[in-house]
Amino acid sequence: MSRLVVVSNRVPVPDKSGAAPAGGLAVALQAALKERGGIWMGWSGKSSGEEEPADLTILEQGNITFALTDLTDRDVDEYYHGFANRVLWPICHYRLDLAEYARKEMSGYFRVNRFFAAKLAPMLEPDDIIWVHDYHLIPLATELRALGVKNKIGFFLHIPLPPADVLFTMPVHEEIMKGLAEYDLVGFQTDHDFANFAGGLVREGIGEQLADGRLTSFGRTFKGGAYPIGIETEAFAAYARRAAKHAMVAKARASIEGRNLIIGVDRLDYSKGLTQRIDAFEKFVTANPEQHNKVTYLQVTPKSRSEVPEYEAMQRTVAEQAGRVNGALGTVDWVPIRYINRSVARPVLAGLYRLARVGLVTPLRDGMNLVAKEYVAAQDPDDPGVLVLSRFAGAARELKGALLVNPYDIEGAANAIARAIHMPLDERKQRWSGMMEHLKKQTVQRWCDDFLRDLTA
After folding, report:
1. What is the pLDDT confidence band of residue 26, given thresholds at 50, 70 and 90?
2. Rounded Cα gap, residues 237 and 436, in angstroms
């Protein structure tokens, strides 16, 4: 069996016991690497200052080699904080107003991909299968091909891909499309994302869509398709059952005695629709005065990318908004919104999912959103909660039992919260069981197996 080589911006290095960090993606990829043997390469998350990074840091775990490299301050600024997160991320999430173009940052993005390729190429064997992950590394196949690498190379985009009218506002959109065409298989979260990619090639006159997911562009024929990522469904369900007895979860249960819990869990990001969600909750409470002191909305929002000004500003905005709602609606014995601006331990989070009557997952745009799937998997089959889900999350293509909402429609989202709170048990069970059956089939392991099968076919 050919070795597997995984390349991602960051590498979830296992601890001394060999256990992968929490999260289904890391677990699935590490399992695939264990089965085949291979390499997982990426950025260490550290800076080498002004000096060019030294040799790769190599960590061996069984038949897996973890290869990490530092980046210079300039590389981190231009490649990561710059083009990846201030151009590609906002454009792929349909936020043209937040995209900031700078030629030096675009240059830095391609330079770092060239650097990654130069570090990886000497480690490769002729029959290795290479799997590249996410928007940070789109040009990597181009750089590897330039070094003479002829291996099968696959790419998976974890975030949305917008239609041509949005994507082509980027000055280097043709280089991005050409970079994707250098892969043998390009995977997307949903059929809509794949259609946007194929449609962009055709519309721009730089490619054709053939049968069976095949595409031709820039003189190459390759495959593309939708591979919706899943979670470790059964394992997470068991995890949530155990977590329900966790001391912190017990304290949370006691603190909301007599109230329904509504939960939202999101990284702090403008794509998550946090301000609109708080507006919807406020609208729900004001339109349903009988719910005063009957519900508690817990929003868990760890900080992210604090070095990017838009994120720092957003952190202040969301905190102020939650404070305003609490000041306007709260009473001596009731705080409507509990806003936590830090990470919560995974066992506690799983228990809180199970405790919550409503899961609010309402991003303005999301590639998939695994929180939605974790919320469903964590539910008590005898008394499941209700998922309120944005129609603009990739998960909406799969979780048909959710209450789908337009996150821009504040009143509509508020009405969905009210419907979820009042939904009878029989309907809750029916909706949940259909979603849970789907999640049991479409696991993260199946996602991994399906992609690698098609890449190696």
Report:
1. confident
2. 10
